[in-house]
Amino acid sequence: MRSAKDFFRPLAVGAPAPVREVPFRPSRMIHFFDPSNEKMAAKVPAIAPTVDVLLGNLEDAVAADRKEAARAGLVAIGKSTDFGDTQLWTRVNSLDSPWALDDLITLVTEIGDRLDVVMVPKVEGAEDIHYVDRLLAQLEARAGVRRPILVHAILETATGVANVEEIAGASPRMQGISLGPADLAASRRMKTTRVGGGHPGYLVREDPKDPDVELPRLTYQQDLWHYTIARMVDACAAHGILPYYGPFGDIKDTTACEDQFRNAFLLGCVGAWSLHPVQIDIARRVFSPAPADVAWARRVIEAMGDGTGAVMLDGKMQDDATVKQCKVVVDLAEALAARDPGLAEAYEAAWKEQNR
Length: 356
Fold this sequence. Notes:
The chain is of the alpha/beta class. 43% of the residues lie in helices and 15% in strands. It contains 14 helices and 12 strands. It has an 8-stranded parallel beta barrel with strand order 1-2-3-4-5-6-9-10, surrounded by 5 helices. The chain has a two-stranded antiparallel sheet with strand order 7-8. It has a two-stranded antiparallel ribbon with strand order 11-12. The longest helix has 18 residues, at 126-143. The protein starts with 28 loop residues before the first strand and ends with a helix.
């Protein structure tokens, strides 16, 4: 067994020192694009400033005969594009595929200094992260990469969910975890063919009003993913990394997409995947605290002073626990406002309105 003191030592001679705390950078939307699609690749310079994370996808949605073209396309985009404050991520092919090794070797040696995060699909246990961790260290040392490339895992199998706590704590490189609902549904033998979101058959029904008379009874659709998201959020919070909702496949159903994203946000997720430009604005809106909520949180913090004791505001008791909740909202708002001037103005306007 390795000593705990070794956890923050490089896994290869010449590799950069591991991070001790995952830096929080706004990542409300992880926008996917196919680097092998020339039309899509041509739009990257215009899309990059509008998203928090731009992800070159090499795995699912890229046909087998386009894998090498996607990899080469991402290298070209990484070298030629000014991303500004936008993060560049990639989703490599699964570790049991014939492409994953070449994905990592090529990307780290060619654009390692420009690549922020490597997303690893179908992670089932800490051993998958350990493999990627060591390999990245060796490649960083070879390429002279100056800062460690972080790792993001996708929960897509029942085994991965069962091992989510050990995955979250497997390496200092762990940046976060995303829920991959489609593959997870198949792994669990769930009877849904949707990519994320709810299902009209997953419901509860009100009790009969009169057991002797058959009358219509109200039904309420339930959230298929509540348990998994909550467990993933707990694992991430316990290890200081970031949880994300994954894809919502019905591009036209923007209302249900917004509902799913908001459920994830309220449970603790910091962002979601966007598969189409229409989902970018949804993610930006949902994963940014509402100005009125931020103004209220600032008011509570101000009223509580040193954070001890209790006060009454508008008939509601506030104490040290609510201050902690309010600080979560305000800290997130400040981090987002530093990147988004429009959001900063909205937060300031709401605060002034509340204090009129």
